[in-house]
Amino acid sequence: MPVCWLNGSFVAEQDAHVSIFDRGLLFGDGVYEVAAVVNGRLLDADRHLVRLSRSLAAIGIPDTQPTAVWLDVMQQLATQNGVHEGLVYLQVTRGVAERDFPFPAQVVPTMFAYARPKLLLADPNAAGVRLLTVPDLRWQRCDIKSTSMLAQVLAKQSARAAGAFEAMMHEDGLVTEGGSSNVWIVRDGTLCTRPTSSDILAGITRDVVLEIAHEAGVPVRERAFTVTQALAADECLMSSATSFVLPVTRIDDHTIADGAPGPVTMRLRAAYLARATRLTQ
Predict the structure, then answer these.
(1) Numbered ranges of CATH 3.20.10.10 in the chain
(2) Domain 129-279 superfamily per CATH
(3) Helix axis angle, 45-59 relative to 67-80, nearest 10°?
(4) Residue of 48, 138, 145, 269 marked catalytic
(5) For labeling, which of 57, 125, 223, 242 is most exposed (least CB within 10 Å)?
(6) Could you report the average pLDDT of every consecutive run of 10 residues in the chain (281 residues)?
(7) How many CB atoms lie within 10 A of CB 202?
(8) Strands, DSSP E only, in 138-217?
């Protein structure tokens, strides 16, 4: 029976309950993270927890859980649930209080986490995925990994309804990011992605890809690019903790280059997988 962690205790998922007055339910008043598990061990979870602390601080929720405790909880969830390869999700909400918009006084945050298996190293989508362009309808603090994700839900539902793997959001013609990923293009051998700001989430996988590209001698430019430039790119790729690095071979009904994963993309993916395997041995 799957086990989750709720407010300090490991419990069977079917026995885990949260109040209907939890502000995460009422307002989406919370933040979350997701870290990969490879070879039964956490990958870059420490980096995700740094971002969790940053998100909590940005919305005024106290960071009451020490990093070492979170790491132990996440690893135990992977181990107890037999997740050799997959994901561990964790979420913190402001807690339970009478429904009112301002922050309640003396409220205790709600914290929970759970694990799920997922193919990561041998991702069935590694041959290339299709993105669907959609308008970016989100709020102005996309750098906070908030649980208020209705705009992303709608974007990713549009992608699924169109038979696409992921949404590619844009604002005034400029690509922001994917529904739950960062988007990159390659032009004349140079890797390009939008710089971090409050317009996008600073992806942990994005950071690692930048490091890998630097180590591999791949030129990088952090600058915004348009949908038109993405369509005309030599290569396109996406990155996320849930998919690592995946080639994008189509955007809407347009084929990128010759429709095959590009050499820079596959070089970065191979380097990412090698790093993940090395760090979790």
Answers:
(1) 129-279
(2) D-amino Acid Aminotransferase, subunit A, domain 2 (3.20.10.10)
(3) 120
(4) 145
(5) 223
(6) 97 98 98 98 98 98 96 98 98 98 97 98 97 96 97 98 98 97 98 97 98 98 98 98 98 98 98 98 94
(7) 15
(8) 166-171, 174-178, 182-187, 190-193
Q: What pTM was estimated for this model as a whole?
A: 0.96
Q: Cβ(222)–Cβ(170) under 8 Å?
A: no
Whether residue 135 contacts residue 152, with contact meaning beta carbons closer than 8 Å, is answered with no
Do the bridges between strand 86-93 and strand 129-135 make them parallel or antiparallel, or are there none, so unpaired? unpaired
Q: At what angle do helices 204-216 and 45-59 cross, to 10 degrees?
A: 130
Is the domain defined by 3-117 classed in CATH 3.30.470.10? yes
Structure tokens at 71: 């790491």
Catalytic residue flag (residue 145): yes
Name 173's Cβ contacts closer than 8 Å, sequence gap at least 6: 226, 227, 228
Query: Kindly report the CA angle at 48 between 40 and 264, in degrees rounded to 5?
Result: 80
Q: What are phi and psi of 275, to 5 degrees?
A: -65, -45
